[in-house]
Description:
The complex is a heterodimer. Chain A is mostly beta strands.
Amino acid sequence: MVIPNPLEIKVVGRDFYWHFIYSGPDLILGTSDDITVSKDLVVPVGYSVRLLITSEDYIYFFRVPDFDLRESAIPDLVHEIAFIPDRIGVSELEVDPMCSAWAIHKDGSMGDMHTLSEKDFKDWLAKRIQGK
Amino acid sequence: MMYLLPVVALFFCGGCEKEQQNQSEQAPPTRKFKTPDFTLTDQHEKSFSSSQLQGKPWIVNFIFTACPSICPEVTQNLVRVHSSLSKVDSEQVTFVTITVDPANDTPSKLLAYAQKWGADHKDWKFLTGKRDEIWRLSKEGFRLPVAEGSDKDHGIIAHSSKVLLFQNDGSLNAVYEGTSEEEMGKLTNNLQELLSPSSSNAEDYSARIIVPKDFGRTKKWIESRQAKQIASKDQIDAPVNFRFNDQQQQSGLNFRHHIVDCAGKNYKAAHYDHGNGIAVADIDGDNLLDVYLVSQIGPSGLYRNLGKGKFADITETAGVAAKDSISVTASFADIDNDGDPDLYLTNTRSPNQLFLNKGDGTFEDVSKHSGIDYNEHSSAAVFFDYNNDGLLDLFLCVVGEFTTDELATVEGTVETHPIEGPVPKYRVAFKDAFAGHLKPDRARSSRLFKNTGQGKFKDVTEAVGIIDKGWSGAAMPVDFNHDGFQDLYVLNMQGADSYWENQAGKKFINKTRELFPVTPWGAMGGKSFDHNNDGHMDLYITDMHSDMSTVVGPTEEKEKSLWAVDKWGDNYLNDGGKRILGNAFYQNNGTGAFKELSDDLNMENFWPWGLSVGDLNADGWQDAFVVSSMNYPFRYGINTALINNKGKGFKDAEFILGIEPRKDNNLTIPWFQLDASGADRDHHLAKGQQGEILVVGSKGSRSSAIFDLDNDGDLDIVTNEFGDVPQVLISNLSSPDRKLNFAKIKLKGVKSNRDALGARVTVTAGSLVQTQIHDGQSGYLSQSSMPLYFGLGEMTKIDSIEIKWPSGALTKLTSDLKINGIFEIIEPSQSN
């Protein structure tokens, strides 16, 4: 299992949840072996991570206050942010307050970001690939 | 048990007979008093019996057509009660008026009487029959006295002026004095309660869901703010010892605004929730200001001012219901210089409409040939004379493309307040409508139309170079460089505003950053006025969209939304960083430069749409009323009254003045119903519910107009509410024990445009010197045709009135300037 560096992850807002798309074994994002997980973002510590952020319906704002990350998710547009997670742990993906989402959001949470060790991340991704 | 009849004495009163009650002996009505049986003949010679009244509320009174005083008074009062009911409501109640003089009152006479007083409605029966039967019915059936009058030879009949209200089960609900306006107000309220019990009766639904869930917290905030503001009353130098009272129910302004589902049941963050305008003008030349209220869907309403704070719905006869459109707002302006205000309506995805006033308060739709039947996402329509040719031109603000091509039917109504049909379909909004400013293909340029005369306009947008693709809801005509040609400040609700300098009526040049280095990011409304009486026009801009960036608590409402940068990021704001994240107040220093002083002057507030400016306390300093709040699915936001503290800044006074909290402290409104067990089971609010549920949201205003509604000398406020009836806030500033000094000025252009829009008026009264620009900008989205109002404070004498007309002509009046009246000033035919 090889982790691309930088690791590109497509972040898609849809139906008031985040959906995260990782490249599959071919290490190319946008191909048929891509892996999609919903709600929680998982990243490896110490790797350069590039988030390609968009939406398939409403406007969302992707925010991880612990890492000072913020970007808008807009249909048909892709906004990019890059960072290097420097510590293992769980960070909140802050609830989107734009206009409607906070009031009618399904359960008040857009999910979490889990930063794993390199080994744990590889195990996590391998399970997703196997389970596909 | 017998109904105990109030003890009454009959006395002669102005040619008619009226009953006088002995209050101490009056017995309360009992609901065991049932509708008596009768069969009479109506004004159309058809038989009418009491059995036809079963199952719905009805009212009854007695008159005779020859009655010279009391009967007409009661009839007029009942006409107002009838007009205060919505069309749907009025069809559910029957008015019954019975003559006590059947020998003279034939059906044809009764019909003529009904027509004379505007009571000729199919649900209003005027009945006659045999005298003996009717008198017995009055005395024994309704327990109302009737007798030969003291002036029998002249046909006077003594009878009761009471009005009886019966409820659905045929039992008596209440008795009212028909000559009392106060009692008639109570009758109206009671009728509406009988007709709409489910609006306040949660038992009719299996569940009642208030959105947001923590609405109770909002009420606590408001109570806290109310107490704090009232405690700070002594810090206001300006007079605030007066109050406003919402008299909507008594006024006859029974208009109800309706929304599309994108702002309700299928809510999404889109520009439909920006709401609709209100425009004011004297449409029929009776010197009373009439009101046009715009509904998003369903008929808009034109209400004729009857005087004394009463209105009648004349929408249908005037021909301006515009019920086939998804409407935005209205502007009154005399586009053909014939001396009466014409009406222009803007719409979403259907052609805008121009109605020419025929001079009698009825209108002709000339849209198709006008050249301004623009069909896109229109917003405010600003009439001004950009080239000083004496004809009013039109700057049409155009929002970008925020709707898809998908057509939908409104489903999310409340059954007690249905939309009067047939209801048009609307275009569903984009789910990402509020990212439209990031998508160049959705941008549209606002349009400038030149008035070429004969009711026709020509699009000159490109020809004069005013290519403005900001997402614009409104614009303000100004003349900041004093060259006699009106410039434009164009708002952008999602990005930087634009200031366009008029080059002698030939070109417009964008000089935004030269005058305004930073502008509000989410500008929604604005108004140019002179806040400190220095003779220079300042500019107040309200910013709504910056306030959408996070959940704001009450202590943060007076702060700029600086968190928007963190919450949204620069990619979304997309304005190069030259921004104010909140309201702006540009003070004009008179040398062509402005200083932004919104925080210094206390001009920040929360969720503002737009504002109306007027001297609410008549002290000679212009105040501002900012309509605010967002309705479902958000918490309630207060409207803001900013009282000008004699040029030293503004003080919050909405609680002190009785504007907030709203009447009966009611901050919520039924928003839509859901069939949780059926068609709506997948709606997110239907989760875990069964049966019919009622979803309740926050109340909220969208637009307002400040004017002297009842001609008592002080300024009143009427709002257009989102999904609700208007607020009719009547001021008690003018009262017998309070001396009020003011002047109203009505201009008539001759060489200039007939409305004299663009005229500069200066009134000098001792040390008090006030200047106003007549721009027609009356409130969010809207333009009105009204006299200018100058409060004079303690000044009891006007020294001069000076007018600079758009043509360049000057007028200076220094004699016979009596206060507390209206000056009608005509432009001199030759320029000075």
